[in-house]
Amino acid sequence: MATIILVIIYLAFISLGIPDPLLGSAWPAMQPDLNASFGFAGILSMVIAGGTIVSSLASGTLIGRIGTGRITLISCCMTAGALLGFSVAPSTIWLILLAIPLGLGGGAIDASLNHYVAENYKAHHMNWLHCFWGVGATIGPIIISFFISQHHSWRSGYSAVSIIQFSLAVILLVTLPLWKKAAASRGDASHEDAAAAEDVQSTVEGNTVRLFQIKGVKPTLIAFLFYCGVEATVGLWGASYLVGERGITAEKAAGWISLYYGGITAGRFITGFFAMKIHNRILIRWGQVIAIVGGLLLLLPVTGIYLAGLILIGLGLAPIYPGLIHETPARFGRENSAKLIGFQMATAYTGITILPPLFGVIAGQTSIVIFPFIVVAFLVIMLASVEEVNSLLKPQQRNSSQ
């Protein structure tokens, strides 16, 4: 039964990943069709991410009240309905309204399933969980690219993704009793869920200041802010850069963004094996260096090189997010890890909310040519933040490795 639920969770994370890169991949085709401004994609991205922040912070209370299975089912229906609405939206106003349930649904699935896997499965399953998100994020641009090239319609691409989401909702509905049986077999599930809700509430009520005073917490949160900020910025604006600055067609640009997410996916799969022999801190550091090299390659005029840079950025980003989360108990204490991971996820979504729209505003006022410069700047700030944490916590890290 636990294996079946794990398979369902992996499928859910694939479906969670598929919509994430759709907007960026489809925007070069959506913008003229909707007569929207260049930077409007940033506004949509901000609304989606804002909904994700709200639902992820509320997930602890929701888990205690209705359970992980029901949250996942309801959230999947919300995202499926929102994506279907995107496919028929007559104007940008409708897209903004539909972005709200899309973000709320995605955030609830993300936070609740991360919590469930952390509580009920071994650590290596968390690495594969984020790998399966990458599988979905790789598939999304492929779907959009296919429908733009073969049917000249980004709307059909959104419809296809909506059908995938509704199919998962059916699977979740049929298998919903398994979640109840699994909870009953654990016996203490209701207690754990209640504790999770209480934990979130206590964080809000009084422990926030103390947590922020722990050495290394603030630069860690900055690292999460810029990690998800750069990941989302490349995913949202990468295709527009390739079309606007490099002269690549919209369907080919979507295909290359798919390879970028493919780099994240493959990197996380490979990192799972390396992590058996190499410490997380080393994997994180080398990942950041590889991503920066990829960003610098975007500046070069040779087609094959700057396209390879996108893939290198994806490969470099792969070990950073799961590695930083996995390091949280060792760095800041197990008694603080649950609360801090919640803050880390909220900060990461804040990066998604703020940084891609900020780039859209800057690029709209200047030129899309600044894309690689901004990407490299975000990566360097992230590297500096992580290395500051390593420096501050060097004694603890040395002891933990012995």
TrEMBL record:
Membrane topology listed for this record: Multi-pass membrane protein
Limits of the Major facilitator superfamily (MFS) profile domain: 5-390
Subcellular location: Cell membrane
Segments crossing the lipid bilayer: 41-64, 71-89, 95-116, 128-148, 160-179, 220-243, 255-275, 305-325, 346-363, 369-386
Top-rank taxon, per record: Bacteria
Alphabetized InterPro entries for the sequence: MFS, MFS_dom, MFS_trans_sf, MFS_Transporter
GO MF annotation terms: transmembrane transporter activity
Keyword annotations: Membrane, Transmembrane, Transmembrane helix, Transport
One term under GO cellular component: plasma membrane
Family from the record: Belongs to the major facilitator superfamily.
Protein name: Fucose permease
Organism of derivation: Paenibacillus taihuensis
